[in-house]
Amino acid sequence: MKLNLRNPIIFFDIESTGLSVSHDRIVEICAVKVLLNGDREIKTRRINPTIPISEEAQKIHGISNEDVKDCPTFKQIAKSLAEWMKGCDFAGYNSFKFDLPLLAEEFLRAGVDFDFRKRKMIDVQNIFHKMEQRTLVAAYKFYCHKDLENAHSAEADTVATLEVLEAQLDRYKDDLKNDVGFLAEFSMRSRFADYAGRIVYDDKDVPVFNFGKHKGKAVTDVLKAEPSYYSWMMEGDFTLDTKKVLTDIYLSMRNDR
Known about the structure:
The protein has helices spanning 55-61, 65-68, 74-85, 95-109, 124-131, 136-144, 154-171, 180-187, 219-225, 228-235, 240-255, and strands at 9-16, 26-34, 40-46, 89-92, 121-123, 199-201, 207-209. The chain is of the alpha/beta class. The mean pLDDT is 94. The termini are far apart.
């Protein structure tokens, strides 16, 4: 079943130097833009991360430091990429946990204001896990009845994710609506205030911490009772986006005094 779209939607996948959102960088990005008429535009770009690619990451995606040494940096392509993505909704496979936070972090480092929170976002893996509970390779085999060639290649994984979502709409047509808003809501496990999921919204739309000793507690309550916690997080190993969200809450709390 083809997607029923109100806005163009971009399926994307990234390969990186490692698994730390706050420290690692993108080395390859593939994005498939599906237009309202069903046409597709595919962009695949290798990027010089400006830091070494870990051996562990190289073993997974096969991209070496030599492969990307002459490629543009993310900062060099950030503005044109943001313009190309403007007005689109987004989808990916396991994107809420890593790809989306890392891409958002790269835009922040480049000084480009691109707010994914204003767009609908679908995580195809979450739909899969709610229905069947498997990996992308297994999902592709299960839904599309094909073997996934070149797994962990950004383009192969991205195109496979698009095909899996279309097949999910066919398979679960009685349970899933062919609507990006519905799919975004259905695939969302928690309502994150920040991309890394350190701060989430509770059932009353109150931002609460989602980690550590204050997990489940309202951010404002913690900052009032323990003001030093703000400084600890701002100096700690958290993403720029998490620090930005925390600062917005902190300043709003001070302005309400």
